[in-house]
Structures are given as C-alpha cells and as structure tokens.
Here is the input.
Amino acid sequence: MTQNLFTLVVRLAKRNKAQPLISFAGLACGLFVFILIYLYVSDEFSYDRYHEKYEHIYRVVRQAPYEYMGSNKFLVGTASLAEEMRQNLPGIELISRIGVFRNPVVSTNEQAFFEETLYAVDSDMFDIFAFEIIAGNKERFLKNPQSVILSESFARKYFSSIDQALGKTIRVETYKDLGVFVVDGVIRDMPWNSHFRMDMIFPFEAVVTAIQPGDLGTWYNNNYYTYFTLANGVDVEAMQKMLDEQN
Here is the structure.
C-alpha cells in the first residue's frame, strides 16, 4: 500500500514538475514570515524586562484638552507633579522625574565632545530601575549636586578607562553653562532593549536650576517624564482614579 502511494506521488510529480516547487516555495515563504513575526513580537515584549520591578513600574501619561499631531495624550508633564503625587497619593512607593536635554557639549581637560542627550533624574531613579553600578557609588551622587554618573562606554570615551574616570571632572554646556561635575560613578551600559539608554546621569534639580529654573515649582511647563512604583497590594485602577482627580 505504502509502495503504491509512493509510486503515485512520483508519477504525479513527473507529470507536473512545477507543482512541488511551487508548494515548497509557498511553505518556505510562510515559514519565513512566521519567523519574522515571532522575532518582532519577541523583541517588542523583551523591552525593559531586565528591571527587577518592571511589573510595578508606571509612567504618567498626561491627557490634554487639545491635540498635537493627532493625539491629546503626552508623556511629559510638569516638574511639580512628582512631589504632589508623593504627598497626596497613598500607595506611591518610589517616584522620580526625568529631564532629557538635547545637544550638550561635554569638555574634559583635553577635548570637547558633542553629545545627543543628557539625563537629569531624582534619587529614586536608582531604585526604580536596575542600574548596575560597576565603579564608584550612588551615595556620592545623591549627596553632591555637582556629581555625574557615566555609562561604561562614555567613561572610556572621555578618560580611556573606567578606573581613570572616577574622580575626574567634566564641564557641561547646553545653551547655558551647567558648570563642572565630578564623575562619582560608572554604570554598565544599558541593554539595547531599553526604551531609554542613559549615558550621562545628572541630579535633577541641579540641571533644571541651571537650564530652566522657572520649571521648578510651576504647573505650566510640561517638559519632564514621571516614573513611579506602587507598594504591594495597591489597586492600580484606584490609583488611576486618584491621579485623574489630582489633574
């Protein structure tokens, strides 16, 4: 029976030689598309999963009464929002603002570097996200407003090695002079599957005071991201309702 079936298949293939090739090509294309979709979905779902608290990290989204580029939802809000949330929303565990400033010029004693971004963060940022400090420590950064933490790539770029970077100084300018900062720590380069990758981390209030001091204590300038975590057992929907009422 099996021999007869095999013989029949061979005879049909000989009569229509193109059919097996078409079938194989269709199967190969289908398998290729499936693999592409699987890789894309896996890549999308891998983002930020290396953070220990990733299931408990939230970002504030602001809904405005107007639209810009087809949407009325924005990821940036005011610098005052974080403290207001901390004081008035029970269940907030950690909260931090992130300021992103473009096109800084970083100078060492030997040369200047034109960079894309610098990040200014609050102290809770180091407990919200999994920054692996490989040299120095965050305690100095938290105490010294003129402190900076570099990624390992930037430490090597500016000072040849991680060890040589510690204790050295850099001068930072945007459209204003931020002053001189001491390198008090180096973090491991953030993985590629991160929705942000920080290479220079500065104290939030020191940078904002130098660049845009009017943003502190006001509710009018929406320039900053706000991330927070919730304590165990906090109802997310209830927190969402309270946050909406605050706005």
